[in-house]
Amino acid sequence: xxxxxxxxxxxxxGQAVIPVVAVDSAAAAVNLARALAAGGLPAIExxxxxxxxxxxxxxxxxxxxxxxxxxxxxQQARE
Length: 79
What we know:
Elements: H1 2-13, E1 20-21, H2 26-38, E2 43-47, H3 53-61, E3 69-73
Helix pairs in contact: 2-3
């Protein structure tokens, strides 16, 4: 657990802001995670405000090469 905490701390202290995003599709989350990571913001938070949020979180977090540190927060929205 300490290793994961240390790794997360490194990511979170390495950027000035953490983008908080709400997405309507998993594809949008994947594209956004890639773009933000390429722009120097590898840590993002996906809110659980939309029905697609959990799938979006899973797909963005599973990107090959792990270009982003993706986290989810909130209560899952219902359709």
